[in-house]
Amino acid sequence: MATRQTQFLARSLLTPAVGLLFVWMIVPLALTIYFSTLHYSLLDPGSEAFVGLENFRYFLTDPAFLASLQNTLVLVGSVLALTILLGIPLALLMDQPVIGRNFVRLMVIAPFFVMPTVSALVWKNLLMHPVSGLFAWLAKLVGATPIDWFNDVPLFAVILIVAWQWLPFATLILLTALQSLDEEQKEAAEMDGASAVSTFIYITLPHLARPITVVILIETIFLLTVFAEIFVTTGGGPGLQTTNIAFLIYSQALIQFDVGSASAGGLVAVVIANIVAFFLVRIVGRNLEA
Amino acid sequence: MARMATTQRVVISTIGAWFFGFLIFFPILWMVLASFKTELEAFAIPPSFLFFHWTTENYATVQERSDYFHHAMNSIIIAGGSTLIALLIAIPAAWSMAFSPTKRTKDILLWMLSTKMMPPVGVLVPIYLIFKTFGLLDSRIGLVFILCLGNLPIVIWMLFTYFKEIPRDILEAARMDGATIGRELIYVLTPMAIPGLASTMLLNLILAWNEAFWTLNLTTSNAAPLTTFIASYSSPEGLFWAKLSAASTLAIAPILVLGWFSQKQLVRGLTFGAVK
């Protein structure tokens, strides 16, 4: 019963949101593209000049780019693997008849609500400190040499922190999906004599395929731009060992003040994120029709 | 028919779940404990778990030396302000798309979602320069604006999925009874939409409170919210673990409570309705 009047009203209610998001998307992106073609350093104002694709050549052939691309991929891949491989058994466990399940749920979800700067500093100092951290004390208890996390395995240390933050997210989504699994289907399988393992492989896992995909895509979008955890723990170092693409762009922009090169890097990051976003939007879109 | 849970199974899964739950929660607990220790005890090896000299002096020191409340206030204003403005813009938009959908509604929704996919670092340079030009660096108003726009797609999406669930028949009935759009909005829709609005607001508050890319890059002191304030403890001079822990505990406590209230809606909000 959409009359002309309501149609007009509906459109005018929608316009502010669409307009703002459009400006928010287009203006900074257009500026990034524009800056990426300039020689533009904040340390040397007034010397801006058009240099074509020179910034891209510089950014993409910079050894720091390859190193940071590799770190980004290792970071994203490892955190995804850890959160899903630990999240599935954890969700399965919490789906069992557990006394006080709600309380366990609260404990498991808690790290997700901790701001990144807090998680990173608490892990770095209270847990991972090579002399006075809890891990060092535990290592000495069992007679092992304490690990100097941020010197010996800096990227792995960052991975652990980020995985701790995202494990609750993966677990909660998988648990929600498990709880919507049809109990009767599992019961029927059990009555037919299916073992727990084959019930898991043939019934539970296929049911989890979609939520796992959603977890992978959403986590990837956030993990591609992990920043605060690196900013407060390692500052990208030692050397470039924990510099990911987001941190590299930040340091080119706000430490070296090289606007042109940072903009080129920013566009590279946008392209990478868009490849992931393409798949996510398709999955969500399919869900919209159902 | 529910499956019969044997006692043994309940015992094993309960112990397992509590063990792993505790393990995951432990870093937070350890931080809270450290906040009640003296600096010496926080640093001591072997560490003391419960039998130390409990003190609240760190909480007092954090406020005295670094004006904790100033930063907490910034966090409240920035997270609260950006959430309120986002809701004001999103409610009409989501209402319109849920109740007067056109054939382009789906495309608009997906396009909005795709703006959220843009990595913030991709637009760091222009935003930083715009802020610099207009004197918005280290200002609360600038951050409110950025966080509001950044979270707007999620807010619209969540509201849309909630509004969608309000049964159409009720609206039809109200219209039959001669209700105008205004009355329909106030007396029929609003009461039904309040749970959805509340959880959208909660989730957005949490996201804005913990946002640590724009806050770190665009603020230094005046407008610095708690994320930036805590980051200042990363400087290597002197180790203030107990004070860091006290400041951190205060910074995460309110959001942890809000988060626990909203955890049921969290999945839906963060997956854009793809997992319910």
Describe this protein's structure:
- The complex is a heterodimer of chains A (290) and B (276).
- Chain A has helices at 4-36, 54-61, 63-94, 101-109, 116-127, 134-141, 149-152, 154-179, 183-191, 196-223, 228-233, 245-254, 259-289; strands at 38-39, 49-50.
- Chain A is mainly alpha-helical.
- Chain A has one domain: MetI-like (MetI-like fold, Orthogonal Bundle), CATH 1.10.3720.10.
- In chain A, strands 1-2 form a two-stranded antiparallel ribbon.
- The mean pLDDT of chain A is 86.
- By secondary structure, chain B is mainly α.
- In chain B, 74% of the residues lie in helices and 0% in strands.
- Chain B is built from twelve helices and no strands.
- The chains are: A mainly alpha (290), B mainly alpha (276).
- At the A-B interface, helix 1, helix 3, helix 4, helix 5 and helix 6 of A face helix 1, helix 4, helix 5, helix 6 and helix 7 of B.
Low-confidence segments of chain A, given as residue ranges, are: none
> What is the 3D form of chain A?
globular
* Overall tally of domains of chain A: 1
Number of helices of chain B: 12
Residue-averaged pLDDT of chain A = 86
Within the largest sheet of chain A, what's the order of strands? 1-2
Portion of residues in beta strands of chain A equals under 5%
What is the name of the CATH class of chain A? Mainly Alpha
**Secondary structure category of chain A:** mainly alpha
Low-confidence stretches of chain B: none
Query: What gyration radius of chain A follows from the Cα positions, in whole Å?
Result: 24 Å
Profile the largest sheet of chain B: none
What's the short story on this structure?
The complex is a heterodimer of chains A (290) and B (276). With 290 residues, chain A is mostly helical.
Task: Summarize the SSE layout with pairings.
The complex is a heterodimer of chains A (290) and B (276).
Chain A: H1 4-36, E1 38-39, E2 49-50, H2 54-61, H3 63-94, H4 101-109, H5 116-127, H6 134-141, H7 149-152, H8 154-179, H9 183-191, H10 196-223, H11 228-233, H12 245-254, H13 259-289
Helix pairs in contact in A: 1-13, 2-13, 3-8, 3-10, 5-8, 8-10, 9-10, 10-13, 12-13
Chain B: H1 7-35, H2 39-43, H3 57-66, H4 68-99, H5 105-116, H6 124-133, H7 140-164, H8 168-176, H9 181-210, H10 214-218, H11 226-231, H12 241-270
Helix pairs in contact in B: 1-12, 3-12, 4-7, 4-9, 5-7, 7-9, 8-9, 9-12
